[in-house]
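Example: Oxidoreductase, aryl-alcohol dehydrogenase like protein.
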Amino acid sequence: MATTSGTWGYRDRFDDAFARTYFRRFGPGVVSSIGAGTYLGDPTDDADARYREAMVEALESGINLLDTAINYRCQRSERAVGDALDAADAAREEVVVATKGGFVPFDGSRPDDPGAYVRDEFVRTGLVDADDLARGSHCIAPGFLDAMFDRSLENLGVERVDCYYVHNPETQLTERSREAVYDRLEDAFETLEERRLAGELGVYGVATWEAFRVPRGHDSYLSLPEVGARAERAAESAGADECGFAAVQLPFNVRMADAFTVEAHRHPEEDTDVSALQYVQESGLDAFASASLSQGALAESIPSPVNEQLSGETPAQRALNFARSAPGVTAALVGTGSPEHVAENVAAGTFEPLGARAFDAVFE
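Written out as structure tokens, the predicted fold is:
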């Protein structure tokens, strides 16, 4: 597991190579403000090898945050992360490992009949109750999450996950009411609190695509204050001394800035609405920006008015620095399936991110 001494020791090894604020506080220690993502790519042996090589290079170059999910590339991404942890010249206690559960995962490859696979491997075996499924592929019931947590530990080859996200809970809104989804999240959080108490989990959170960056009236909307309140109740029910809800993952980039501009969450102390990122900052949570390069689109070019404000030698570096400049953002995640791009992505951290005033000016 990531520890205070381990992550600070990692920082000390690499800090001179990066600009100020590259390493930021998270959990018991610190984490690089650029993280290695594992979402894209085909479920093939060749892609596995490229991921392993890229993540080893990232770990040995100053990135100590690996982000994955059990369903990414049919469980292959988690296994590639585990292989990279074994191969890299970086101790386990130096690295923050984050994964997610919620989508029913395939195993190794996409089956010819996904629906039949889900029925045979999950419903008929009792891992999933058919009534708990949304869109035939998503479940956050406690028993399912518990089983997937165990499988993630096995895939990753670790005894503890540093951050575990409930993955895209807004998917459940296609089948049930918002209040019912909050109830299910509370049950899921209680399961994760129990894993924390067992010493198998550091902190947990919610990874979303739309839920926190859309207006209140949107079909996919979930309230951050309500999600946080449900986590507090779950911690109390589990008998925890403190709540382990600590992180939010959501898309944020130059072209997808809703997490900063859409004011849809009640301020934790004032009678006003704020954006998701502002809420995260005010409430002491950590935000992790996904899609920071918009799945590669921003590696080619950035809109001119914003581009002129950013530091970096390439569009990809400037895009990463925009994402990690936002208030509340602890790290920007970037796909790491190609060894060729690791050096460029890591080098983004040698440039200073925007200051708060300069960042705000982009939106004026």
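The mean pLDDT is 95.
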